[in-house]
Amino acid sequence: MDTTVTGTDEPLRRALGVGRRGFLSTCTAVAAGAVALPVFGAAPVQAAPAAPASGKGGRGQLLVPADRRGIILYTVRDATGRDPLSTSLPSGFRAVFEQLARFGYRQVEFAGYGQHANAPGGASLESVQGARLLRRWLNEFGLRAQGNHGFIPGSWPLTTADLDTFKKHLEIANILGMDHMGTGGDPTGSSYKADWDVAADKWNALGEIARRAGIKLYTHNHDSAYGFLLDSGPLDAQGRPTRSSGIRKLEYFLSVTDPKLVWLEMDIFWAHVAQYKFRSYTAPDGSTREQIFDPAGLVACHNKRYPLFHAKDGVVNTTNGQGYDMVPFGTGVIDYTTFFSRVGQRNYHNPMVEQDNAPSSTDPAQSLTYARTGYRNLAALRRR
Q1: Which helix (H) or strand (E) segment is 265 a member of?
Q2: Cα–Cα–Cα angle for 303, 63, 375, nearest 5°?
Q3: Is the pLDDT confidence value at 266 over 50?
Q4: If we measure between CA atoms, which residue out of 135, 107, 126 comes closest to residue 308?
Q5: Rounded CA gap, 68 and 289, in Å?
Q6: Residue 330 carries which DSSP code?
Q7: Checking CA distances to 18, which of 61, 117, 170, 204 falls within 20 to 30 Å?
Q8: 10-380: what fold?
Q9: Which of 277, 338, 267, 265 lies closest to 302, judged by CA?
Q10: What PANTHER family does UniProt report for this protein, alphabetically (predicted)?
């Protein structure tokens, strides 16, 4: 990757308030992330030439249409959260919206509604008034809110207070124009079938409340949700099963929740971590059986239940227990060209660029620089 700062890079560097040396070091770090070899034979993402899309389904077709390219604001949380009085960098929701729109993004996913107290609107916009202000800024810069990692009640049955808070968040979602509202946590952290049955009852009930408000409720999942369900075999001292039939926890959740009430957001990076980690299970007869997880295959089987994705990339690291280290989108080895080609429905899915470790304690512009990298690489994905 050529890390020379070109004339087209200069406006970004100036807008972000970054010196030439700092900008170059950031670009070099991005480039260095693309050299590792892939796990499981996956090919690195290739940034295809910017050629016009061919006919429907043909070679060169854009895999992510322009109006579907989004980013979760967790990626740039340092920018929304910093004090605008202390820096010339974009700070607070409004300035960050403006910068993301300049990069080309047309969608955002919230990760809460808090920002720095000195930003326009104040520290918390988690209110009807705050949502109206956010909506005005979204409209101003041509952005659409698609979802939020916000409040999903933890108690079950619901308390009155939790139900009231949940309804308030649904009202905020409607003001912001969202089709979806969700959370960043698994339905349950348990591996036992009985606990997933309880979680399914809860999510079906919440999904019905959300449906009445015109919102689709979704759960966002990391690697552990793709581990194997404990649903068979000898019972332990507490009467719980100790072995698996081979179904994964989230697959079971899909089978026992109403497809008209409960949706999912696959974090594609963490799904590939699960592919690396959860490769075998102990069958009811005590034998060990191998079963490699296929993230795109799961989506293809339940396509309409995955309206949202987190588009997050990684390079190989077999020493950290996860198989990958996180890097800016499009600079790693996860084969997004194949993934998006296999799942199809390109005018239905909404990929949100995410990088958990984008903020830097030494480079305050890094998260926005990586956001631009992510947009460019998402826009470059084309069918081979």
Answers
A1: strand 262-267
A2: 110
A3: yes
A4: 107
A5: 39
A6: T
A7: 117
A8: TIM Barrel (3.20.20)
A9: 265
A10: HYDROXYPYRUVATE ISOMERASE, INOSOSE DEHYDRATASE
Which pair of structure tokens corresponds to residue 335? Answer: 């084969």
pTM of the predicted protein model: 0.85
CA atoms within 13 A on the CB side of 127: 8
Tokens matching residue 81: 């959260």
Nearest in space to 208 (alpha carbons), one of 143, 260, 268: 260
- Asked whether residue 86 carries a pLDDT value surpassing 70, the answer given is yes
DSSP type of residue 331: S
Using CA atoms of 228, 229, 232, 237 in order, give the dihedral in degrees to the nearest 10.
Answer: 110
Q: What is the mean pLDDT of residues 266-294?
A: 98
| Cβ-based burial of 343 (10 A; exposed 0-12, middle 13-18, buried ≥19) | buried
49: number of CA atoms within 13 Å, CB side? 4
pLDDT at 314 over 70: yes
- Flag whether pLDDT at 61 surpasses 80: yes
Q: Are 28 and 363 a contacting pair, CB within 8 Å?
A: no
Both tokens of residue 95? 């300035």
pLDDT at 18 over 50: no
| Type of residue numbered 213 | A
Give the tokens for residue 220: 């966002």
CA distance 125 to 134: 8
Six token digits for residue 76: 């740039």
pLDDT at site 342:
97
* pLDDT, greater one: 302 or 58: 302
- The burial class, CB within 10 Å (0-12 / 13-18 / 19+), for 239 is exposed
The structure tokens 């990684």 sit at 314
